[in-house]
Amino acid sequence: MVTRISDGINSVHYFVQVPYVLNSPAAIKKLSGEDEVEGEPYYEIEVSFRKEGGGTDHHDKFVYWIHKENFTVDYLAYQFFTNNGGIRFRKAVNPRVIEGIRFVDYQNYETDELSTPLNELDSLYEEGALKFFSKINTENIDVSINNN
């Protein structure tokens, strides 16, 4: 039970820190292509994690759509294997910058087809083929700058 709760907290904490957590030594990043989503140009970056330092969910897979001009992470997809697994696609909404750090909320979508390649989820999203799953809001943000 402790592992399940801590994994859930880690997952929430992870997504709030995107893209900064992608600089972890455990992260394996690969440019997999370029695409256009909702009329905007993106790099598609595949991310996986090494077992060493990658946490209990190191086997999960991710794709990030990074805007080619402003370098923001506006979409992401991931496949997870805990609790019978699943695939999610997230659209970043409500971007705001607090003390120089960009925070977003997410619209979270899913597909029941677990064999769907993650890099195809943007097209399925645009076609309306994904099911809305949840909205994820980051609230009560407090950023303290320590100048020491």
Question: Care to describe what's here?
Answer:
This protein has 148 residues and is mainly beta. The chain contains two helices and seven strands. Strand 5 (86-98) and strand 6 (101-111) form a beta hairpin. It has one domain (2-136). Strands 1-2-3-4-5-6-7 form a seven-stranded antiparallel sheet, with helices on one face.
Index terms:
148 residues, mainly beta, seven-stranded antiparallel β-sheet, globular
* Rg, Cα atoms, Å: 15 Å
Give the rounded overall mean pLDDT: 83
Strand content: 35-45%
Distance between the termini: 39 Å
**Spatial ordering of strands, largest sheet:** 1-2-3-4-5-6-7
The string of secondary-structure elements, in order, is HEEEEEEHE
What count of helical segments does DSSP give? 2
User: Tell me about the biggest sheet?
Assistant: 7 strands, antiparallel
> Helix- and strand-based class?
mainly beta
Tally of separate domains: 1
Task: Report the helical percentage.
Answer: 10-25%
Overall 3D form: globular
Number of DSSP strands?
A: 7
Quaternary structure of the protein: single chain
- The stretches of 5 or more residues where confidence is low (pLDDT under 50) are 1-13
Question: Secondary-structure blueprint of this entry?
Answer:
Layout: H1 2-16, E1 27-37, E2 40-49, E3 61-67, E4 73-80, E5 86-98, E6 101-111, H2 121-127, E7 131-136
Antiparallel strand pairs: 1-2, 2-3, 3-4, 4-5, 5-6, 6-7
